[in-house]
Write a structure and sequence with these properties.
CATH class of the largest domain: Alpha Beta
Strand content: 5-15%
CATH architecture of the largest domain: Alpha-Beta Barrel
CATH superfamily of the largest domain: Glycosidases
Structural class: alpha/beta
Helix content: 40-55%
Number of domains: 3
Number of strands: 14
Length: about 700
């Protein structure tokens, strides 16, 4: 049977969605053909993207349908009931058609699909993507991505993924983008490339921005501030400090640097008409400047550069972590020329948003950040930065956490979310054993497909049911697999949030949950990155709802109430119960296809980490009791919890399952030391020795 669908054939967005609908039709044994929107013959599906198009068929779009939203409605057209996708804009029509394709596979026929109106929860649904050149972080894990990120074939698939998951903003971050994009009129030698090389770069950017626009995705270039190229220093500023390209340090600015940057802003806007906007980050290379001095520099350089451009562009203003909200919000609210709303980015729980869904910490640990939203802003919206520096290798899928996060943080002053990492680029997958039968993906983001699907779909519509995700798993691995797989994911992927709630952290490298490690600059390559039992004993929980090991034992000894707190033993019981349930669900899945085994292995790895953490918490309680009371039996129990068949066995199981499909990989948190779970086997033994040695120390 042939089904016909009509839409504006000159719309790349609708053509993209039509192809997805065509694929869905094929899965139920139907053919889909395109007909022109104004064709006089009967059409089964009609997709409209504005009021005028709907009016051609005697329809009015429901007033409840907003920008980027859509309605699926049946209507008697030419004597036959036709299914309409009605939207105010092309993005909404694209999302409506994608929804139709998904529901077609769920219900099996067009006639069974229910009518529905769905609107976007957030206007701003962004991915953060760090570029590997002129990068904020410098490491092998970035260097290996350069060739892939320069490949437009990579971007086609990445942007297809974004559109399919309802992301509508791509933010590209690096220290100093201008030499890769333009040749400054008055500082031409600041760009080190030949004319031919620069032409290749310009083709790259122009094509990338157009590809994004064709999928309803806005693109912002976001950089740090007082940086120049090495070529600029060589030709125009011999007095520049040697480490000008390093992100950390005091300000160095001259009138030439201001002119060069201001001119570059203007040229960038003029030479790339499909670039949506710019963004800035007040902090790096501004350490010795006052909040007002920093804002003045931005106004004098970026604001003026944008004013001189031939068109207005949107703007992302990262909230400074040297807090004086009045300075920044006054600048934004009084600017008079920036398109509204301006997006003000705020890091949610610093670099580790996978902790608590409650906002407990912002960038720099600053107090007073609430001044950006209290009182409510006039012409800008807060956009939460959900930074992930906690798991790059293991797949993660926990929809309830995302829903809770949105429910907790979707105030009227919030415009949306960024999702992404500072220390991981989801391009080439360098963690998996090459040539494995597991791999049905080319790029890392394709391996982590469910992570992106959950975030994108739930930011668009938080009421999206888990059935959507279990159906997606079932489509990949078999219908009977989807439900138990999703439940298993949901159970074991609570582990990183549990660790980040119990163990205090600050910036990027202070926690890496999937490795059970925490580092800082002083500990680089020192071998002390693993979170030892002593570290857990010394740590204060990040989330005040949790009792530390010491506080719990204090209350236990003194018979004080535990009401309203999560104790270490309660956390351990929850982790163990979830892990065992998750492993049991895996056992119920008998399909042995290699790609499914790969996902199951990641779920098992999270379960082993959960069991390890649970037993280590129990050991910590026993050891703390021993320290307070001198009870030798408590020390012995602590030792037993750390040994096999408990914590040590769980870590060995973790090594076994991860070694089955992963090899050593570069990890910024460890500097030059490659990461693998096997690396920390000696630290597992050191924990046991730490507890055992107490007798010899006269305890």
């Amino acid at each position: 049977m042939t089904i016909t669908a009509a839409f504006r054939e000159d719309s790349p967005m609708l053509s993209f969605a039509f192809n997805k609908l065509k694929e869905a039709m094929n899965t139920i044994g139907e053919r889909l053909e395109f007909v022109k929107l104004n064709d006089s013959k009967h059409t089964d599906v009609i997709i409209t993207s504005c009021e005028e198009e709907a009016a051609w068929f005697g329809l009015a779009i429901d007033p409840l349908v907003e920008q980027e939203g859509f309605e699926i409605r049946r209507f008697l057209h030419k004597g036959i009931t036709t299914l309409f996708v009605l939207a105010q804009d092309e993005s909404g029509a694209m999302y409506g058609t994608l929804e139709l394709a998904e529901r077609l596979q769920q219900y099996g026929s067009l006639t069974a699909i229910p009518e529905v109106i769905i609107n976007a929860k957030f206007t701003f649904r962004a991915l953060k993507f760090n570029l590997p050149w002129s990068s904020y972080r410098m490491h092998e894990c970035f260097d290996v991505q350069t060739e892939t990120v320069r490949d437009l074939a990579f971007w086609q698939r990445f942007l297809d993924m974004m559109a399919g998951n309802r992301f509508n903003v791509l933010t590209l971050w690096n220290l100093h983008p201008f030499p890769y994009m333009i040749r400054s009129t008055h500082f031409p030698q600041a760009t080190p490339f030949s004319d031919e090389e620069l032409l290749e770069w310009k083709h790259y950017w122009t094509t990338l921005f157009r590809m994004a626009k064709d999928r309803g995705i806005e693109v912002y270039m976001i950089n740090w501030n007082i940086f120049v190229s090495e070529a600029f220093k060589e030709h125009y500023d011999e007095n520049a400090i040697d480490d000008q390209q390093f992100y950390f340090g005091d300000a160095y600015s001259t009138e030439q640097i201001k002119q060069y940057t201001r001119e570059s802003v203007t040229q960038l806007i003029n030479e790339y008409p499909d670039l949506t906007g710019l963004g800035i980050s007040l902090g790096e290379r501004m350490h010795d400047m006052s909040p007002q001095d920093r804002q003045d520099w931005i106004e004098d350089v970026y604001y003026e550069g944008m004013k001189q451009a031939e068109r207005p562009v949107k703007f992302i203003h990262r909230a400074p972590f040297s807090v004086d909200p009045l300075v920044t919000r006054t600048s934004i609210e009084n600017n008079g020329f920036l398109p509204e709303p301006v997006w003000v980015e705020v890091k949610f729980n610093w670099s580790h948003a996978y902790s608590s869904p409650r906002l407990l910490l912002t960038h720099g640990g600053s107090n007073g950040m609430e001044g950006y939203w209290n009182p409510p802003p006039q012409n800008y919206k807060i956009t939460w930065m959900v930074r992930n520096e906690d798991f790059f290798t293991l797949r993660w899928a926990q929809s309830d956490f995302i829903r809770e996060h949105i429910a907790e943080n979707a105030q009227d002053y919030v415009g949306g979310y960024f999702v992404g990492s500072e220390c991981f680029i989801p391009a080439i997958d360098y963690s998996h054993i090459e040539g494995s039968s597991h791999m049905d993906w080319t790029y890392a983001f394709e391996k982590h497909w469910l992570y992106y699907m959950m975030w994108g779909r739930l930011l668009y519509d938080p009421s999206t049911p888990d059935l959507v995700f279990s159906d997606a798993l079932g489509k990949r691995h078999g219908k009977s697999v989807g439900g138990p797989m999703l439940e298993a994911y949901s159970l074991v992927c609570k582990m990183p949030m549990a660790l980040a709630s119990f163990f205090s952290f600050t910036w990027d490298f202070t926690l890496y949950a999937e490795g059970f490690i925490a580092t800082d600059r002083a500990e680089y390559n020192s071998g002390k990155s693993f979170i030892s039992l002593q570290d857990l004993l010394d740590s204060t929980p990040f989330d005040p709802a949790f009792l530390s090991l010491g506080a719990y034992v204090d209350r236990l000894i003194n018979n004080q109430p535990m009401d309203g707190f999560i104790t270490p033993l309660q956390l351990a019981e929850t982790l163990e119960a979830d892990a065992k349930h998750g492993l049991a669900l895996l056992q119920s899945i008998v399909n042995a296809a290699p790609t499914l085994c790969c996902e199951k292995a990641d779920i098992e790895a999270w379960a082993r980490l959960s069991l390890y953490f649970a037993d280590k918490l129990r050991a910590g309680v026993c050891y703390e009791l021993y320290k307070r009371t001198g009870d030798e039996s408590e020390r012995q129990k602590a030792e037993q919890w750390l040994k096999a068949p408990h914590a040590a066995k769980h870590w060995e199981d973790l090594i076994k399952v991860t070694n089955s499909h992963y090899h050593e990989q570069p990890l910024m948190h460890l500097g030059e030391t490659p990461f693998t779970w096997e690396l920390f086997r000696p630290q597992i033994m050191e924990d046991i020795a730490f507890v055992s040695a107490e007798i010899d120390m006269g305890r």
